[in-house]
C-alpha cells in the first residue's frame, strides 16, 4: 500500500506542476500532460480505494 501512496503523491506533484504551467504561462503541452496525469491519478485513486477496503476488512 505504501508503494501505491508514493505513486499517487508523485502523480499529484506532476499534475500540479503541469497545471500551474498551463494556468500561469498558457503552456499547451503542459495542459496535455496535466490531463494525462489526471487520468493516471484517477486510476491510482480507484486502486487505492480497492486496496484500502481490502485492508479494512482484514
From TrEMBL:
Name of a matching Pfam family: Hc1
- Organism, by scientific name, is Sphingobacterium alimentarium
**Name the record gives this protein:** Histone H1-like protein Hc1
Q: Which segments does the entry list as coiled coil?
A: 27-54
| A single GO molecular function term of this UniProt record | structural constituent of chromatin
Q: Which InterPro entries match?
A: Hc1
The entry assigns this protein to a family as follows:
Belongs to the histone H1/H5 family. HCT subfamily.
Q: Which range is the signal sequence, renumbered to this chain?
A: none
Any idea what job this protein has? Might have a role analogous to that of eukaryotic histone proteins.
Highest classification ranks of the organism = Bacteria, Pseudomonadati, Bacteroidota, Sphingobacteriia, Sphingobacteriales
**Any idea which UniProt keywords this protein has?**
Coiled coil
Amino acid at each position: 500500500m505504501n508503494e501505491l501512496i508514493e505513486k499517487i503523491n508523485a502523480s499529484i506533484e506532476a499534475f500540479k506542476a503541469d497545471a500551474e504551467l498551463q494556468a500561469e504561462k498558457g503552456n499547451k503541452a503542459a495542459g496535455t500532460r496535466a490531463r494525462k496525469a489526471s487520468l493516471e491519478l484517477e486510476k491510482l485513486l480507484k486502486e487505492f480505494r480497492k486496496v484500502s477496503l481490502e485492508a479494512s476488512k482484514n
